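Quick log. Single chain, no ligands specified.
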Amino acid sequence: MDRRRARAGGGVIAALTSVIACTRGPATTRPLPLAEVALARATVDASAPVAPVELAQPVAPEPVAPEPVAPGLDASAPTPAAAPDAAVALPDGVRRFRGQDEDALLQAMRSRPVLRVLHRFSSTTLVFHCDLGDGVEIAFKPARRGEHQWWKHEVLAYRLARVLGITGRVPPTVSRRVPAALLEGFAHDRDLIRERDGTIRGAAIYWMPVLHHSGLHTPEAREQWTPWMFARHEVPAQHRRRASQIAALIAFDYLQANFDRWNSANVSLDERGDLVFRDNNRGWFLENLVLIERGGLQGIERIPGWMLPGIERATADAVRAEVRRDGLPFHRLEMARYWAAYSRRREALLARVREAIAEHGRERVLLDE
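-> predicted structure:
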């Protein structure tokens, strides 16, 4: 997919009736009625060399290149004592991500100079793996012609996650500038948007040191976990943690109108075997936000119990206030249209969840782990 087609992806999505765009391989032809409802007919990366996943057993995943890989773990397995802490909101109000003060980490990611660019990766967009020193590394997604909003969407997704109370799943993300001279030697296509001061704007995203393929995008896995998203089905006790994470991800993606999720690269696991909600740049396009009936709304019947109060407090004003903490540059009129469309999606999601609770009861709709 070239960049012009990627930029127009939202329009294609609105036109299709059986498949949401953004594939990285040929779409599956196997009928998946429940999965299609739950995931807004999200596509499957049928070309990815990932073995079918039996979720009841520990996963032996294929590594997500090029990041280093440790042995995979099923989410139902005990968490290793040596694994870093997940992000939590402590009683004193300090959020932590992998054992670090999250706000202090954001400040370091924004302000520390880039000591060196370790590598450049390119798929539908560019990502630079950058070393900031003292163990702080970032993935930098730059402003680029034909996709200059994409990096902003990463920041929007992270700030939304904070308001929703999602902890430990969305890598911390902050806007920053990087000197163009550091990047241009790695970007020979000359599509980077250089500012007048010789810098390039972009999103600095916490570099996850370990990522695994989960296999959750495959038809076999989706046929297993899709019923867990519906209140009439029981969730096996050993899979409640995984089911809760999937349900949170589906609701998170609905709110930001992100249809580029269900492929091998975008449903990765960390070393604890927990889902990482990464690569969110294809959300937040206005043409998708306004389509409140798309994105899996009729398939959202269960959400984690902690997420309902998060959705209730994630009004447009609350998310907008959180975005202001980053200082993300947006045109006022553009933002007003975003928030109006976002508000309609949030209201539709709340109505759907409350409808499910009225029909099935809170204990069957609100998942715990």
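The chain has two domains: 3-81+211-367, 88-206.
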